[in-house]
Amino acid sequence: GGDVCGIVARVNDTETKFKVGDCVVAQFDTVPFDGIAEYRTVQTYLAELKPVTATSAEACTLPTTAKAAMIGIERYMKKGDRVLVLGGAGGVGNALVQLAKAYGASHVAATTTAFDLVKGLGAD
């Protein structure tokens, strides 16, 4: 697997972002492998602290879905655009709703049966 969640077991001497015992989520840079290994070295820039409100299973789904959403926002959206998100309650859709709003979309609409969820994420 390529997206992982785990506990930091060791850090190098110059590390300031994480400490031993931190729970982090990470995405691998180029080739997704060794995600099911007991230990895995991960570059700091590819990792973030696990959200405290997410379980490990939920958190390990974040790196790829958030990255996919961010690519779409960076390539296709400009501040003030109106954005329609198909499947706003799904993984990528969930991230798109939040990122579009944060990056200045004038209106964000989402298709979903989970209306209250996407409204809570920022959909208009």
Relative strand content: 15-25%
- Integer count of domains: 2
Give the termini distance in whole angstroms: 35 Å
Mean pLDDT: 88
Oligomer: single chain
Low-confidence stretches: none
Task: Give the CATH topology of the largest domain.
Answer: Rossmann fold
Rg, Å, rounded? 16 Å
CATH-level-2 architecture of the largest domain: 3-Layer(aba) Sandwich
Q: Shape, please?
A: elongated
Major sheet: size, sense and barrel closure?
3 strands, antiparallel
What top-tier CATH class of the largest domain fits best?
A: Alpha Beta
| Main β-sheet, spatial strand arrangement | 1-2-3
H/E element order: EEEHHEHEH
Total DSSP E strands: 5
CATH superfamily of the largest domain: NAD(P)-binding Rossmann-like Domain
Give the count of helical stretches: 4
Q: Which structural class do the helices and strands define?
A: alpha+beta
Portion of residues in helices?
A: 25-40%
Characterize the structure shown:
With 124 residues, the protein is of the alpha+beta class. It has 2 domains: 3-59, no CATH class; 62-121, Rossmann fold (3-Layer(aba) Sandwich). Helices cover 31% and strands 19% of the residues. It is built from 4 helices and 5 strands. The protein has helices at residues 56-59, 62-76, 91-102, 115-121, and strands spanning 3-7, 23-27, 47-49, 82-86, 107-111. The strands form 2 sheets. A 3-stranded antiparallel β-sheet has the order 1-2-3. Strands 4-5 form a two-stranded parallel sheet. Helix 3 links the parallel strand 4 (82-86) and strand 5. The radius of gyration is 16 Å and the shape is elongated. The mean pLDDT is 88.
